[in-house]
Design goal:
Strand 2 (45-46) and strand 3 (49-51) form a beta hairpin. The chain is an alpha+beta fold. Strands 4-5-12-7-10 form a five-stranded antiparallel β-sheet, with no helix packed on it. The protein is built from four helices and 13 strands.
Length: 222
Amino acid sequence: MPMTSLLFLGVLFLLALTFPVAIASDPNPVQDFCVGVNTPADGVFVNGKFCKDPKLATVDDFFFTGLDRQRVATNAVGTNVTPVFADNLPGLNTLGIAFARVDYAPNGLIPPHTHPRASEFLIVQEGTLFAGFVSSDQDGNRLFSKILNKGDLIVFPVGLIHFHVNVGRGPAVAFTAFNSQNPGLITIAKTVFGSNPRINPNVLVKAFQLDPRTVMSLQTKF
């Protein structure tokens, strides 16, 4: 094989090794930190935020409290999510991580959804959850699911549809972590039936093989 071909294959091999690392999480910062602020005064725009002058940063920019407090789960699906993102913890800006506490009422649910920019860790702090994710069409849409008790952890791969529901007798608490400061959120039912403007019902009738009245009823719920 000519030397140029060997060199080309070697370059392709190195790219194949490094490319997954490059897309697995947010880009690496080129400074110690970039505390996010919403005003442009003396700032540099990074990841959707202006950076505070590093000399003005304090420990409070990297500190969040109150995750020990129970939240009342009063939404329609019986959960309450307390996010810890760059918007409410500005020191997270450019660090490529995010966090959340989830409180579940009995039978409370985080409905099927996906995070287009992050994988997710879910660890149970209290109660019993049923959690799972579904693989892609190419993999046959296999369901990977597990009953999780206190101290158990499950990983949801980036981009795959997943869910978790409280199946215990009382309230439950879990903590989640993401390898992106902005993982994104696409809730399947809300996205499909609650888009703005609405998807033509005829499209959804054919896609889901449902009666038109059922589709229109679902669209009124989101």
